[in-house]
Amino acid sequence: MRRHHYPTQAANSHRAITGLSMGGHGSLYLAIRHRDLFGAAGATSGGVDFTPFPANWGINKDLGEYATHKDNWENNTVIHAVDDLQNGELKLIFDCGVTDFFLTVNRSLHQKLLEKKIDHDYIERPGGHNHDYWRNSIDYQVIFFDKFFSSATLQQGR
Asked: Is 97 exposed, middle or buried (0-12, 13-18, 19+ CB in 10 A)?
């Protein structure tokens, strides 16, 4: 990271990342893989497991066809990346609308985190995969991250 060009705090407790849809997958995936850089991560309507959608978004151009490269697909999804995650290593928030096509994979991630006893915030609200839902969702993410950063500031002041 080029901190000399962009002055930032060095500790991961001062960095968070979030995104929506496939950007939500990216934000969670990056944060899980780089816990040294990020202390919190979020996703709105995130494609946290894209293996159920092997013909969508051109992912097969990068990962190969799902039928013949299943390991490659699974190794690059959030739902499998959390296998290496321990409770307390990363603050997580993710949400999904109840009519969103990503609802099932978000519920699966939530269930997996519960089974692993990893603390996280998971929210389902009315809505689909659209701007109306996302405009509402961002409010909850901002509150979550504000609390995360406020906690880091309090701990730093001790």
From this structure: buried
DSSP lists the bridge partners of residue 96 as: 124
Paired strand residues for 19: 43
Q: Read off the pTM.
A: 0.90
Whether 71 is in a domain gets the answer no
CATH of the domain at 102: 3.40.50.1820
What's the Cα-to-Cα distance from 22 to each of 42, 56, 59, rounded to whole Å? 12, 11, 11
pLDDT digits (tens, 9 = 90+) for 76-93: 999 999 999 999 999 999
Q: Is residue 116 part of a domain?
A: yes
Structure tokens at 116: 């692993």
The SS3 assignment for 70 reads helix
* N-terminal to C-terminal alpha carbon distance within the chain: 27
Structure tokens at 7: 């002055």
The sign one gets for the Cα dihedral 116, 111, 70, 82 is negative
Number of structural domains found in the chain: 1
Extended beta strands in the chain, E state:
16-20, 40-44, 91-97, 121-125
Per the CB < 8 A criterion, the answer to whether 52 and 84 are in contact is no
Cα separation, 92 vs 118, in Å, equals 9
